[in-house]
Automatic annotation (TrEMBL):
Gene3D superfamilies, per database record: Pseudouridine synthase I, catalytic domain, C-terminal subdomain, Pseudouridine synthase I, catalytic domain, N-terminal subdomain
Lineage of source species: Eukaryota, Metazoa, Chordata, Craniata, Vertebrata
InterPro entries: PsdUridine_synth_cat_dom_sf, PsdUridine_synth_TruA, PsdUridine_synth_TruA_a/b_dom, PsdUridine_synth_TruA_C, TruA/RsuA/RluB/E/F_N
Name under which the protein is recorded: tRNA pseudouridine synthase
Reaction(s) the record says it catalyses: uridine(38/39/40) in tRNA = pseudouridine(38/39/40) in tRNA
Amino acid sequence: MGPGSVRARYLVYFQYLGTDFNGVAAVRGVQRAVGVQNYLEEAAERLNSVVPVKFTISSRTDAGVHALSNAAHLDIQRRSDRPPFSPEVLTEALNTHLKHPAIRVLQAFRVPSHFHARHAAISRTYLYRLATGCPRPDKLPVFERNRCWALQADCLDVAAMQEAAQHFLGTHDFSAFQSAGSPAASPVRTLRRASVSPDPTSPFVLPEESRRLQFWSLEFESQSFLYKQVRRMTAVLVAVGLGALMPAQVKAILDSRDPLGKHQSRVAPAHGLFLKSVLYEGLGPTSMQPPCMPSETQYRSQR
């Protein structure tokens, strides 16, 4: 740290459509693939920090997965004659310099220097969207493509799916729903919520199509998840909804702790999955009011 310069740590919330990205994490080197983090850090370069700005992402998402609200912490060290950015100006500055239209910074908070976006999270919620009544991909509205898993079936046994989802609640060894490559030291997780419910009719569905197409939401909440756990649980619940599995079999799969079984090895497509929220004690969307965004003049005055 330079003499007299002050380092400020921020928590930022951001959202993205994951279709164009190789996941949220930065891709280093000369590969053509790119992560959301690459664009965030490129925007942060324009903030003239004394040291390069690195984002520490709260929740890693795979290629094609979306986020309504992800989070990260970052440190910005300005010259000694410059005060720290206000959270509002930081939000505006990052959005001004972001070069991809599918990424948006929602809000920023000043946090203590010891705060860690990944370790401090108390809750993460994932949303998975399904569509039924879609015999061919071209039967799905173009505005819904890459936003849900389109099933050929006309209907799902939602009551059976809801019954099966109850087996996930509580603290369990979720080894059966963990994909290879998971960095987790333990497969034990506590699932606080697992729900299956109908979605309101999509505004992108034409009236003549609304009788055929139906949308469904699956939501899962836990402090943390294993690698691809949500997509594997979703695939099993869809199998229940289609009648390929009975609800009681889901408990047997969970108890087996075997990730290579016939049903639990299936993984739902990435494009139907959304990271819905990451929560922290006293911070985040539940405490946010719509911000009054600073003007370009205000941003310039803090540069």
